[in-house]
Amino acid sequence: MPQALLIEDETTARADLRAKLAAHPDVTVVAEAATMRSARELLARPDYDLVFLDIQLIGGNAFDLVPDVRPGARIVFVTAYDAYALRAFEINALDYLLKPVAPARLAKALRRLAAAPALSEEATAELAPGPALRLDDTVYLRSGLRARFAPVADISLIAAHDNYTEVRLADGSKIFLRKSLKAWEDTLPATHFMRVHRTQIVNLARVIRYRRDGDEHTLLYVAGVAEPVSASRDRWSDLRERLEHLHPAT
């Protein structure tokens, strides 16, 4: 019997969804939250299979909670806006429901849950490293119902978020995958990709410039990535050598 969490900051909307779920005795609501902080505490529980997640929450955006969802659990986004649908499926959401939630759409989402393969099995396959990639290869990026092909050379950054990795491309787009950072490190060409921090791999060919501050921190400015990437101090020597090799004029 699926056990669900309700994360919704509007009391009336939460009560409405709770009442509609009551018509499905095979689903049990085990806990509820209304804020980002309480949601994070809730998501640390081990006893849920499904999360109904409002996107706009008190204290932040629910997409920031995705890395906190336990492995194997499914996410159904519930929102008053359809503008987030594409991003929802990029992170492997089971469904995307618009408020007020129609009983028929809720029933359809629950049928999807029953028919969906075990996410833990998918995750096991995707977390494992694949064959070694070359810079001129094309990689298949799949997340939920959305998939795309991207040249390996267009990958700018891969960042770890607990059970996910976020792939940033040079055009500024990004996709979340259930693949470990170690699996990426083992398959990407070491000539161009370097783990500059325990949570980040950078395509050094996509580094536009870098800056060193007084505390010897290194900030990398990477194509397609709005914020600078901080490199670990102990990797500076290797990083500098590799940057100078790829960018002789840097």
The 3D shape can be described as: elongated
Give the overall pLDDT as a whole number. 86
Strand order of the largest sheet: 2-1-3-6-7
Helix content: 25-40%
| Reported CATH architecture of the largest domain | Beta Barrel
Return the CATH topology of the largest domain: OB fold (Dihydrolipoamide Acetyltransferase, E2P)
Oligomeric form: single chain
- C-alpha Rg (nearest Å): 20 Å
Supply the CATH class of the largest domain.
Mainly Beta
Secondary-structure-derived class: alpha/beta
- As a percent range, the share of strand residues is 25-35%
Order of helices and strands: EHEHEEEEHEHHEEEEEHEEEEEH
Count of DSSP H/I helices: 7
User: What is the CATH superfamily classification of the largest domain?
Assistant: LytTr DNA-binding domain
| Model regions low in confidence, pLDDT < 50 over at least 5 residues | 120-128
Number of strands: 17
Number of domains: 2
Biggest beta-sheet profile? 5 strands, parallel
